Amino acid sequence: MSDTRELLDFIRQIVADDRAAGKTGGRVHTRFPPEPNGYLHIGHAKSICLNFGVAQQFGGLCNLRFDDTNPVTEDMEYVESIKKDVRWLGFDWDDREFYASDYFERLYEFAEHLIRTGHAYVDSLTPDEIREHRGTLTEAGRESPFRNRTPEESLDLFRRMRAGEFPDGAHVLRAKIDMASPNIYMRDPTLYRIRKASHYRRGDAWCIYPMYDYAHPLSDAIEGITHSLCTLEFEDHRPLYDWLVRHAPVPSEPRQIEFARLNISYTVMSKRKLLELVTGGFVNGWDDPRMPTLSGMRRRGYTPEAIRDFAERIGVAKRENLVDVALLEHAVREHLNKVAPRVMAVLKPVKLVLENYRDGQVEDMDVVNNPEDPSAGTRKVPFSRELYIEADDFMEDPPKKFFRLAPGREVRLRNAYFVTCTGVVKDPATGAVTELRCTYDPATRGGNAPDGRKVKATLHWVSAAHALDAEVRLYDRLFTSENPGAGDRDFKDEINPASLEMVAGCKAEPSLAGAAAGNRYQFERLGYFCVDPDSSGGRLVFNKTVGLRDTWAKVKDKA
């Protein structure tokens, strides 16, 4: 790791300074607090790496806590997917799995305390009236006519709210802070609302639910969190966070610190927008390989090591910026280059027949599994008279800089022989090339000529008699715009109609028989691919993970 990457970022510096000053009694305790209302995405991965990473670096602890305060949008499906994703990234919370819903009784008691001490009141304005009274960024809000209810009256109403006497929207509990505050979040924010909906964990035990901005800081305090790390959109919420911790009888006082959220080019990171893509049928579910969800990236073939490396490379900033998606692809490509075995597959095959190769003869060619990893060893790949090569590797009338196969031209078949094209067979109806006739030089076994002659191209191939049928899904960026939906544009209008190409009739070498879902490979000359879970019963389906061309490395080299 370079010296630059060893330096403390501003969050770690704050943590180190707090410890040195004795502010936390030497403790470091963080938390990753997802709302179980969707699947985690790459932005959450940055937060996961940061929260668990800070705890690990300073010998502390990190909790996994589900801030499940909205029964309408939350589901156990999301809880299980979140736990799977966190573990997949390489982190574990041991026995520290918590839920805000476990604290509902304590949160309710804190609310009664705020009412009794004059810091909260029950408001009976309608939701529209509350919004109208709140004011604007340039105009102060107006006090509710119910703001001066006595604590006794508010306490009675609040208890009746809990008992289910009132319909949704009839009353809310609000903090009594300052309706003239320049920070709109401090203008008597709502703390509780009536919502007669069944909770995925608590069933019908509650019909009032705490707001996120109320439950989150108090849950941190209950758990003894020392540093509450969150993204910049919560910076304006910090005064409310501190106010609640200060006025409720909580056992600890956590410190909120904000950092810039992750924004990646050609990607949307909003849960709402991702949900629109799923429910609108623009993608094939949360784990669609085009999605920035961790489940989608896992299905596409991204590795947790690459995502952790990416999170470390981008670091932790105080200002929002747009990260080039090529940097993420570079991290994935760099790791797969080290660990992915090489295989040969032909996506758009055309048959090549070696006319001077004995019919029925089969040779096993020794092929290196991964030149970056000598311990990966070699494998045997069958070679025969009839082969498949990529249709794009042949041109009947090639331009000047096309060095691959053409009539009369000699090329190398990787790890096999030099071959020369002697003829072309075409479909008489369409004129399309259906077969290439070639001869091979037996003296060039292994891909080298004893007389020292050179060829300008090396092609990959698959033996026709031994080839496995496969389907390959080629992915491009989901959006055509670098910043989808910027300004007042509808992000859905910028969906790339060519983001998925399904290629049937592909041919793969026989070593891939029985390849398990999730296995990752480099298809030589084509890119990195991952076995999709749709593979079953002998059916092979591959997702393209990332190409071989590294645009980020080229940009970096020019810098």
Structural account:
With 559 residues, the protein is of the alpha/beta class. The protein has 3 domains: 3-259, Rossmann fold (3-Layer(aba) Sandwich); 271-341 and 470-558, Ribosomal Protein L25, Chain P, CATH 2.40.240; 345-460, Ribosomal Protein L25, Chain P (Beta Barrel), CATH 2.40.240. It has 14 helices and 27 strands. The strands form 7 sheets. It has a 7-stranded mixed sheet with strand order 12-25-26-27-23-24-13. A 7-stranded mixed sheet has the order 21-18-19-20-14-17-22, with no helix packed on it. Strand 18 (410-413) and strand 19 (418-426) form a beta hairpin. Helix 12 (304-314) packs across helix 13. The protein is elongated, with a radius of gyration of 31 Å. The protein starts with a helix and ends with a helix.
